[in-house]
Specification:
The protein is built from five helices and no strands. By secondary structure, the protein is mostly helical. Helix 1 runs parallel beside helix 4 (43-53) and helix 2 (17-24) crosses helix 3. The chain is globular and about 40 Å long.
Length: 79
Amino acid sequence: MTPNQLRIVLDKLGLNNSDIATIAGVTPRQVNSWLRGVNSIPRSVVMILAALDNDQLSVEWLVEAVGREIAAEARQTQV
């Protein structure tokens, strides 16, 4: 996936840099580096976006699942 293709898919899905950063578990700065072509877009991100674009995953479900994972990690660090 090229940076331009990433932009097109993000626009089509209504996602911004922060959204995809949360989903991918990276910082918005990392997403910016993908969009500028500084770093290659990880295969896992390409696969997630393809599943979202083909209605195999919903953004709502994915954000909820990621949120649960982040909450679980936070609880573990507090123990």
